[in-house]
Amino acid sequence: MNLYSDIKYIKGIGPRRASLFLKLNVKTVEDLLTFFPKDYQDRTKNTNIKDILFSNHYCISGKIINVYEKRIARGLSLFCAEIDDNTGILSAQFFRKVNPYSKFDIFAGLKTSFSLGKHVYLYGNCEIKFGQKQMSVEDYEVMEKDSDKPELFNKLIPVYNLTAGITQKVLLSLIKKTLSETSGLYPDIISHTDMLQTNTELMSVNEAIYRIHFPATLREAELARQSFALQEFLMLQIILLSAKKKNQSAKKLQKYQIKKTLLTPFKRTLPFEFTKAQKKAINEIFSDMTSNTVMNRMLMGDVGSGKTIVALSAILLAIENGYQTAIIVPTEILAEQHFLTFKNILKDLNVSVEMVTSSSLKTKKQKEEILKNTAEGKTDIIIGTHSIMEDRVKFKNLSLIIIDEQHRFGVMQKVAALSKGITPDVLMMTATPIPRGLAMTVYGEMDITVIDELPPNRTPIETFCISEDLAYANAIKEISCGGQVYIVYPLVDESDKIELKSAVKEAELLSQTVFANNKVALLHGKMKPKEKNEIMNRFKNKNFDVLISTTVIEVGIDVPNAAIIIIQHADRYGLATLHQLRGRVGRGKKKSYCFLISDSKTKTSAQRLEIMTKTTDGFRIASEDLKMRGPGEFTGTRQHGFPEFKAGDIAKDLKLIETAKNTAAKILDQDPDLCSAENAQIKNLLNSKYSYIFKVTQVG
Ligand code: ADP
Ligand code: MG
Fold first, then answer.
1. Cα 285 to middle of ligand 2, angstroms
2. For the chain, what is the domain count?
3. N or C: which end of the chain has fewer CB within 10 A?
4. Do 510 and 602 reside in the same domain of the chain?
5. Residues lining ligand 1, CB < 6 A?
6. CA 675 to chain centre
7. 461 near 582, Cβ under 8 Å?
8. Would you state the pLDDT for residue 304?
9. Among 572, 599, 615, which residue terminates a domain?
10. Is the pTM of this model over 0.85?
11. Are 395 and 497 found together in one domain?
């Protein structure tokens, strides 16, 4: 067995379990080893029963002195075991749903395990009711002999993100077994650097993997996490830095001169003046483009700050000088929208715009035509999703690549391969603001421009946490004044496990009830691109009053007549996503509102949503979001479009990133192409193992 073996060959997994693991994205032995816990449960302390005075989670252990069974209600039964630990007696309770017509004994297993006189360890929530101490049991272990040691008690227990069919216990034992069979196999780079000598508490990668799953203390778990993270960061920094070196040494063949043959007429057609921030951004971009090194710039600006026009200025500069531009967007809807916007703005200029998405290319002939024109240089601007990066699109003289709302890191490197010969200038645009310090550390090698100003005369969107009924009442009112409304749901289909309102079901219900007199449309990610585009366009043309949607509308969509967005289960989203969603309204002259609906009662979710009601400043929201994230919560970074780490957390690991950056610089200074035998392992790793960080990246 090696790291790349399919997990179905691990004893105890087999094809059926392997398919369950697939849902967790665990395919290989390596995936399993690095399937890290999302949290730890502290079972290091056993509480004496007499000391249980408050409702809370406790671990206790003692002898089973009595068991009995009780029917609570029709369909619900209770199994009780009384536990004595010499300081008191506790009633351990197991509730089970039962089918009253079934002969099957739902408690058969428990009855066999809980035999009188045996020693048992229990974990669960305790309450004191009528003077009796009761535990609603979440986990237990019955000892065969009193001298036996429990597997899952008296220690920290890792808590994993599980899927139905794989229990905590099963997963733990599989990981334990796999760890012992593959110990030392995981490639360890950091031990060969001086980073561990200077950070003496950190450990080797293999040690770290073991300790992340089986730590003795929380401190040890954290140090292990940091150690694994350090290797991830080192890889990231090596990739960033070598890309930069390549970029700097790349000879810039494209030459731009600000001729204004297109720029001036373009400016004249605009119905507004550039904001100061837009002017500054354009200046920076132009100075990059006319310099001797290839542009590598990130344009950050809040939703609605007018990034498109800035990009268009850069594009026209390229076209003025006889070059082509590619625009890469994350969704087909956005491609179509840009296509229409550009066509509209550029209609009086002699510029040709085309779109390559699966849906636009209706006939084979049209498709070939577009590809041919692009290859011959007749098309100036080509807009598309990742499909642009596929081999079939050839350019004659591509010199500029715009990546819009691309929340996926790593596109950059791949994109460079698009144009043979020329190394194109790259402009990335994002509306997901990243605190500047953080961005500098992580993106590091990229130049950053921030548009910190919105176009004038925008009425700020007002945000409220209100009841569903009130939100609908406001929506009806808005529609009666000619406005349009978005309603956003987190899921497409009703899932039997999670009781969330799903878009599909709710759209049906709402169109028959609350919005019975309105035109309601449904948009979700599982629809065909063509369908999505059609619905979006019809919504834009006011054929619908209400658009019920999943988060597919998150980025870029521009329908100025939509003035209300209602976000269901708002507590389920990160603040950055909420901010993006909210940015779908407030795009026209109308006063706009965002209504957040949530039935979560926890304090943190209330606090989070409150931030949304208090500010519309994306940067503030982003930094609050990062601040509020608890330990072990790795998900937030995904929204920022950062690389995905298995252990690294860019919000709190800035020091580690710094360390990794210095080491990466040292390594590349000595061996820029990683050719030495010593660095062969690094090179291999970059091409295989760490590709998960960069989804579509390849470094050669
Ligand atoms: P984003 O930065 O979110 O991509 P867009 O580029 O889509 O924003 O711009 C949002 C809206 O603001 C568009 O309708 C655009 O025409 C308009 N806009 C852009 N710049 C200005 C400006 N300087 N003054 C007024 N409106 C502007
Ligand atoms: Mg945009």
1. 17
2. 4
3. C
4. yes
5. 272-275, 278, 301, 303-309, 431, 455, 558, 587
6. 35
7. yes
8. 81
9. 615
10. no
11. no
For 626, list phi and psi in degrees, rounded to 5.
Answer: -65, -35
Task: Looking at 118-217, list the stretches that DSSP marks H as alpha helix, in order from N- to C-terminal side.
Answer: 168-181, 195-198, 205-213
Q: Which of 276, 305, 402 to mutate to test the pocket of ligand 1 (most atoms within 8 A of CB)?
A: 305
CB 167, CB 47: distance < 8 Å: no
Strand blocks (E) in 331-476: 353-356, 381-384, 398-404, 425-430, 447-451, 462-465
357 plus 274 within the same structural domain: yes
Asked whether residue 372 is domain-assigned, the answer is yes
Residue 700 confidence class, pLDDT cut points 50, 70, 90? very low
What one-character DSSP code corresponds to residue 571? Answer: G
Shared-domain flag, residues 284 and 375? yes
Q: Are residues 181 and 132 in the same domain?
A: no
pLDDT band at 499 (very low <50, low <70, confident <90, very high): low
The ligand 1 atom at the shortest distance from the C-alpha of residue 451 is 2
The three-class DSSP label of residue 180 is helix
Residue with CA at minimum distance from ligand 1 atom 23? 274
Tell me, in angstroms, the distance from the centre of ligand 1 to residue 540's CA.
17
Residue 239 lies in a domain: no
Q: Which atom of ligand 1 is nearest to the CA of 405?
A: 4
* Amino acid identity at 376: E
Give yes or no for residue 104 having a pLDDT over 80: yes
Of 154-163, 320-329, 593-602, 631-640, which gets the smallest average pLDDT? Answer: 631-640
Residue of the CA atom closest to atom 19 of ligand 1: 306
Answer yes or no: is 694 within a domain. Answer: no
pLDDT at 693: 46
Last residue of a domain, one of 565, 598, 615: 615
Residue 628 has a pLDDT of 66
| pLDDT category of residue 636 using cuts at 50, 70 and 90 | very low
CB 411 within 8 Å of CB 334: no
Domain carrying residue 529: 461-615
676: CA distance to ligand 1 center in Å? 50
Q: How far is the CA of 342 from the centre of ligand 1 (A)?
A: 13
Domain of 347, CATH number, reads 3.40.50.300
| Model pLDDT, residue 80 | 96
Residue 596, amino acid: L
CA of 633 to the centre of ligand 2 (A): 29
